[in-house]
């Protein structure tokens, strides 16, 4: 992917090994303007320094809630150890977008049941200038997925004529 996405951490899993005592991975979601809900897009555990993971654990401990909000669209098999209020927006880069049987971003738009997921996401930075409802929308995710496929086809066509 050449463009980054702005996503919202809505949950986390406890770290293991050297990440014990902090969150080691996060569940990230995009925002659907039409349905006013957060739809999962990826689980991320890379791109963080140990210091950042500690800082995020400290900052997000005040946002922990006991159950997912009604506005969270999460598959049954993706249940984090803790849930968060939607407060932060993170900029993330990824290798590409793929159709996912687990993630709910834009589910039903490109496939009758499946959603779209980021592959190999990497944390870039916190977007202090955005609110959770300003995160990348599910429609933008669909558009990015379609543009990715068009670019791949164009590249394949060019390669064919070489």
Mean pLDDT: 91
Order of helices and strands: EEEHEEEEEEEH
CATH topology name, in short, is OB fold (Dihydrolipoamide Acetyltransferase, E2P)
Query: Which CATH class is shown?
Result: Mainly Beta
Q: What's the CATH H-level homologous superfamily? A: Nucleic acid-binding proteins
Radius of gyration: 16 Å
Shape: globular
- The overall strand count is 10
Overall number of structural domains: 1
Count helical runs: 2
User: What would CATH call the architecture?
Assistant: Beta Barrel
Distance between the termini: 24 Å
State the low-pLDDT regions, or none. Answer: 154-162
- Secondary-structure class: alpha+beta
Largest sheet, in brief, is: 8 strands, mixed
What is the percent of helical residues? 10-25%
Q: In what range is the share of β-strand residues?
A: 25-35%
Describe the secondary structure blueprint for this structure.
Blueprint: E1 5-14, E2 23-32, E3 37-44, H1 50-60, E4 64-65, E5 72-73, E6 82-84, E7 90-93, E8 96-100, E9 115-119, E10 122-126, H2 138-160
Parallel strand pairs: 3-5
Antiparallel strand pairs: 1-2, 1-6, 1-7, 2-3, 4-6, 7-10, 8-9
Can you walk through the features of this model?
Strands 1, 2, 3, 4, 5, 6, 7 and 10 form an eight-stranded mixed sheet that branches. The chain has a two-stranded antiparallel ribbon with strand order 8-9. 21% of the residues lie in helices and 33% in strands. The chain has a single domain, classed as Beta Barrel (OB fold (Dihydrolipoamide Acetyltransferase, E2P)). The model is unreliable at 154-162 (pLDDT under 50). The protein has two helices and ten strands, in the order E-E-E-H-E-E-E-E-E-E-E-H. With 162 residues, it is of the alpha+beta class. It starts with a strand and ends with a helix. The radius of gyration is 16 Å and the shape is globular.
């Amino acid at each position: 992917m050449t463009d980054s996405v702005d996503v919202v951490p809505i949950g986390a899993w406890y770290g293991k090994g050297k990440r014990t005592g902090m969150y080691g991975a996060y569940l990230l979601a995009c925002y659907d303007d039409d349905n006013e809900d957060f739809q999962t897009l990826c689980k991320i555990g890379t791109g963080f320094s140990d210091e950042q993971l500690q800082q995020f654990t400290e900052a997000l401990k005040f946002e922990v809630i006991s159950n997912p909000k009604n506005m969270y669209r999460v598959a049954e098999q993706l249940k984090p150890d803790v849930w968060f209020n939607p407060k932060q927006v993170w900029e993330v880069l990824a290798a590409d977008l793929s159709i996912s049987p687990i993630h709910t971003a834009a589910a039903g738009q490109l496939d009758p049941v499946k959603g779209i997921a980021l592959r190999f996401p990497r944390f870039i930075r916190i977007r202090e200038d955005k609110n959770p409802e300003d995160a990348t929308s599910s429609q933008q995710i669909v558009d990015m997925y379609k543009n990715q496929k068009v670019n791949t086809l164009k590249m394949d066509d060019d390669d064919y004529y070489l």
